[in-house]
Amino acid sequence: MATPQSVLLLGATGLVGGECLKLLCADDSWQRVITLTRRPLPAEGQHPKVENHAIDFDRAGDYREQISAGRVICALGTTIKKAGSQENFYKVDFTYAYELARIARENGAEHFLLVSSSGADARSRIFYSRVKGELEEALKTLGYPALSIFQPSLLLGDRRETRPGEDIAKFISGLFGFAIPARYKPVHARSVAAAIVQVARENRPGIRILESDEIRRIGAA
Predict the structure, then answer these.
(1) Are 192 and 215 in contact (CB under 8 A)?
(2) Is 184 a catalytic residue?
(3) pLDDT digits (tens, 9 = 90+) for 8-40
(4) Is the pLDDT of residue 169 over 60?
(5) Whole-angstrom distance between the N-terminal and C-terminal Cα of the chain?
(6) Choosing from 90, 96, 132, 144, which is the catalytic residue?
(7) Which of 22, 49, 63, 128 is catalytic?
(8) pTM
(9) For FRET with 124, which of 34, 90, 130, 173 sits at 20 to 30 Å CA-CA?
């Protein structure tokens, strides 16, 4: 059996991040699971192998010692509605993620695994897609030996907040799913998390882009 590894999980309280946390805690491949959150993890997120650090993400450099692990899973993300403005959205989805990735790489991290989005494109006219694409491009400049980018389409799962737009999209997908290409079909957050943990375990070098169809395949393995 391979030596247990350390992993840094960003976004542990979110939809995909929460599923990642459960899987990492249950997997003997991981000895330490370091989580960075705004507030201490709730009771259901606590586990003997979890090291939780509540930090101020605007001052990431102050927590350099905690931003250290062989592999980094980034499931940070918000919505413009929740963030309150495009500026705040950019800060969470780009600035925080990039700064933490940069510091982790400086501390020796070798594999960065990012939860991005289908349609991510730095040249997109859609603000959300453009920010996601800009982050993907920026991460490629940090020199990670392994960079895995997950681009799921519509995410399924139990969210704490309601998103009417997603509910409508899920309804339409249910009606016309037979006509939707596999790479654009909705994928459950649990499948995304399972794929992320599997890819982190494999630790294949190079840049890898995974869309919904491949995410679903790996997550079901």
Answers:
(1) yes
(2) no
(3) 999 999 999 999 999 999 999 999 999 999 999
(4) no
(5) 19
(6) 132
(7) 128
(8) 0.87
(9) 173
